[in-house]
Amino acid sequence: MKSLGSKASGARLERMRASPRWGGEGFHNVHPILPGLRDPNASMPSLSDFLCGRERGTPSQPLPSVNPLAAWRRKSETGLRVTWLGHSTTLIEIDGVRVLTDPVWGLRASPLSLAGPKRFQPVPVALRDMPPVDVVIISHDHYDHLDYPTIRALVKSDVPFVTSLGVGAHLEGWGIPATRITELDWWESFAVPTGGVQVMAAPSQHFSGRTPKTRNSTLWSSFVVRSERHRVFFSGDTGLTTEYREIRERLGPFDLAMLEVGAWDPAWGDMHLGPDNALKAIAHLDAETFLPIHWGTFRLAMHQWDQPAEVLYAQGSKIRARLMMPRLGEPIEPGRASGAVEPWWRSVDRVGARQPPDATESAQSTLSNTMPWPVD
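Structure (tokenized):
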């Protein structure tokens, strides 16, 4: 299947092997994993657990959303505006440059069209209606961050892609010209052609792979987007690591940090932050504002769908950064954030549960044989 991606070869593979993060057969986390992040007694959830597991794994109805098109036509008053479009897909507007992160418009975070985690609701704006963007960032190659149908739709555009080492093989295999792809190792940077903005890859604590046989065959990264006036941190996927302090020292201070807070489980607590460790990470980064991402779109772990939001709502006042929790599609300017949060997600449901995600028995078998575990 084309959606499984392509393997790196030739000069691309040689450059990957020259990275300090290459471990002989693939990439590896170079920073020691902090103690206590993973519960040694927790077992990996099974596919059956996901299909028949905990109540309220998905919302009973679509989440409220805002169409951002009218707001996007107006110039940002502070020079920095961000719109969360679902999961890790955001549009960053920074001093006249538009940056799109981990664009996922597909129905499922899966190589299959009929099975796999299904999105709770459509993206607030259709991909065809998006304004022109100046650069697309792809943090790593997991299905909920690198989406085959979305990339195929972007082939006809001329937008450049910035991604982690090796991920360009997938993009090129799906039709993106090599001249539009820039692959970065950590601490390397890319100057956006429209001018005035740099994109830099930075450390994260995660893994990669679109099949069990391609585990860690490409690099994973966080990214920093910076202009003369503003700096934004985008976590991609990561566990808690003190490397965040080095990122702050080398690339900060940050006006805004976007950190993943969902898809956490005790069995893989070293590979994802979850809301509690996101609060610790934001303290390391010392950012002025904090936008939680990587929640409210796909069911990728066993926790209730709104658990990350509830934890942050209860604890957000304990951190120095101003917490921003906008509705899907709601453009916000960090420089004008008050730190007051409206728990809008509570209007969706507080009791009851949705039916488990649809999947046939044969599709379940196919899925378990093609996807890495956990899926993100």
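The longest helix spans residues 274-285. The longest strand covers residues 80-86.
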